[in-house]
Amino acid sequence: QVQLVESGGGLVQAGGSLRLSCAASSRTFSTHTMGWFRQAPGKEREFVAATKWFSGATYYAHYADSVKGRFTISRDNAKNALYLRINSLKPEDTAVYYCAAAPPTREVRSPDSYDAWGQGTQVTVSS
Fold first, then answer.
1. Which of 6, 21, 115, 126 is the most buried (most CB within 10 A)?
2. What is the DSSP string of 80-105?
3. How many Å apart are CA 93 and CA 66, to the nearest integer?
């Protein structure tokens, strides 16, 4: 069972930046699809970004249309770590951000594909 712990959230002014981190405990981290989701109050959990293993050392990044150009997902397999860089933060980015892990064969955008979830980290953007 993969265990995930997020960090890096906080209160930020609009236009600012944050880097979220996710520490994973897994012997097969390098082949997991790793994703970020977020959930705002009163809303469903939504896909933000994912990094999916293709072959060898090749990974593909996937992004929700709403975050393309502002969010960057990355991973460090040597550290079993996943990151999400968020630039040009907007008040509508306010949410709890979750890190999640899925087997490499599943579709990346559905929360149902992911077997393991972190506890979440709060991001609050003030206007």
1. 6
2. TEEEEEE-S--GGG-EEEEEEEE-TT
3. 10
Q: Any residues with CB less than 8 A from the CB of 120 and at least 6 apart, and which?
A: 6, 39, 96, 97, 98
CA distance 126 to 120: 19
Amino acid in position 57? A
- How far apart CA 28 and CA 68 sit, in angstroms, is 28
With 0-12 / 13-18 / 19 or more C-beta atoms within 10 angstroms meaning exposed / middle / buried, residue 52 is buried
User: What does the pLDDT look like over 84-104, one tens digit per residue?
Assistant: 999 999 999 999 999 999 999
- What's the pLDDT score for residue 56? 84
Residue 56, judged by CB atoms within 10 A of its CB (0-12, 13-18, 19+), counts as exposed
Cα(120)–Cα(9) distance, integer angstroms: 9
Angle at 19 between CA 127 and CA 113, to 5 degrees: 105
When computed from its CA atoms, the radius of gyration of the chain, rounded to whole angstroms, is 14
